[in-house]
Amino acid sequence: MSMNRTQFQPGLSMPEFLKQFGTEAQCEVELRLARWPHGFVCPCCGHPVHSMFKVGAHPTFQCQACRHQTSLIAGTLFQSTKLPLTLWFLAIYFVSQAKISEILFDFELRLELYVTNL
Ligand SMILES: [Zn+2]
Prior knowledge:
By secondary structure, this protein is an alpha+beta fold. The chain has one domain (15-116). The protein has four helices and three strands. It has helices at 14-21, 24-35, 85-97, 100-116, and strands spanning 50-55, 58-63, 69-71. It has a three-stranded antiparallel sheet with strand order 1-2-3, with no helix packed on it. β1 (50-55) and β2 (58-63) form a beta hairpin. The longest helix is centred in the C-terminal third of the chain and has 17 residues, at 100-116. It is elongated and about 55 Å long. The protein starts with 13 loop residues before the first helix and ends with a helix. Bound molecules: zinc ion. Residues 42, 44-45, 47, 63, 65-66, 68 line the site of zinc ion (ZN).
């Protein structure tokens, strides 16, 4: 019988997680590496040379070739959020640490509470 290798990987402890992703800057670096593992590449023209500045809470990248601008969170799960990345990363951590049966049980309880209060 095959085993899901991802599900049985050891997870980070809470102190380890907070040490790695406890600040907004750490989460931004991680998200940037996830989006552009070999460095920024313009989503319009593929040019790698860019300038970076802050608009709002997150870094924005401007392509030096075509002047297209994109923010760190544009086109990601975090697009349009007003919450800090640290909070999203923490939520993802909690979901990733829970067993699927616990998530479904919690969802079932919340659904029952919601239906009961209608
Ligand atoms: Zn470009």
